[in-house]
Amino acid sequence: MVHSRPQLPSGHGEVLAQPPVSEWRRIVEANQAAADSWSFSIAGISARELRTLARSDALAVAGLFSTRLGVAVEASGDPSAPIIATGHQPDLYHPGVWVKDFMVDRVARSMGASAFDLVVDSDGFDSITVASPCFIPRVERCRHYLALGQADGCYAFAPVPSREDLMTFIESTRTSLSTLSAPAVLHHFSGFAEALMAAAEDADNLAELITFARRRYEAPAGTGYLELPMTLLARTEAFRRFLVGVILDCERFAGAYNDELREYRSVTKTRSAAQPVPDLDVDDWVEVPFWALQGGRRLAVRVRREEGVLCLLAPDGTVTVSLPEDPEAAVAALASSDTIFAPKALALSMFTRMFACDLFIHGVGGGRYDRVTDGIIRRYFGVEPPAYAVASMTLYLPLGAHVTTPEEVSAAKERLNRLDHNPDALLAEVDFDDAAERERALALAEEKSRLVAAIAHADADKKSLGMRIKSVNGELAALLAPLRESFTTELERLTVMQAASDILTDRTYPFCFWDPSEVADKVR
Question: Rounded to the nearest 5°, which phi and psi values hold at 133?
């Protein structure tokens, strides 16, 4: 099937919604009706039973966690009523990601539905940074580090930075923002900084710190959706049953997973075996798309069958958990284990979309890779996947910058190229102070014209004529040297201005540079 690729909105305040928000209610109803017809089973219970359990678990856990946010939220609703969800890593993400939360909140209220944001705190990260434009004295992109990731770590295992580190991060960001011509940006960030410092008193890890701070900063916009950390959802019975179902049937699941990835790469002509995600490794063991979170580390998981027991192996071959092949006993064994098993990207989307909600809102990137998830669902479960929506938004900082376009730079390069190769074509753009120089330039241009005409004859001495044309070009270039200097200076100026424009018109600066009410207004 051919799908149009959603394009990022380019205009300030422009919101992307595909399909349009007006169709989301219909999608919810269609997804519910399709799920009611599912006849397959997972880990000893029907898909419909798992769906009922997952929805109840998700809302219960999200409701309990959300009481710690420090802001007013909606009460956990009836799990049989519609549920709309979105999700992302707990990062200082840009408004294009942030807007999904506002859209989920708005649509859920209009439908009488529950809504949650899935905080993917089980993912790893390199660093948490704020990038900001700054003038020092020319336009630069400055970076300010809130936290650094650890090898095999994840957001949920990262500690809350110390008060001193938080203050260093805040003050360095403030210093950069104070160089801008728009004081509102610094004002908004200062409000977020207050929320961040307050959240540090309540948060147990980095994921909670950023989530608490974001929701408290967002509070004036009146959003009431729930927050649901993945590490808490992973502890629910519903997720454990999904995990057990995949593990017990790991060979067939890996086959469907890898077959779909191969087809995707073939259709899209993707050469990298790591895109959009790597295949599951199948050898004496079978890799499954989950992480084992244990002892502060995040480890890949493989399954090996040994005399009626499924051993879940860490990368070094050690057994993290042993599961009996009976589904009920396996779910109980996971519940008594100290290890948390969290899904990787495609499995996370699969579980959430199929079982925990009626409509999931992706960003543009997530929407692209979930075409693969759709194919795996078809191959493995034998049903049509629930439809999802894609949403994003573009906001630019109010810096009043003149945008120098790539076309302007290309035009300047072309002028310089013409001067080097066809200087005679630019004589009309030149004012000569010396009449003799002008006459000399015109004479050379006329000579070149005759030479070009002559070299086109079949019996022409192309070598000697070509050498003379090159010589004429050189003489013209010497006469036009001041023009070349002017063109070069203009190209350098435009190149610098384009680099500055790229910085000043970047759409990916963090949400804490904008007023949350401005974002809320865009989706009302």
Answer: -70, 150
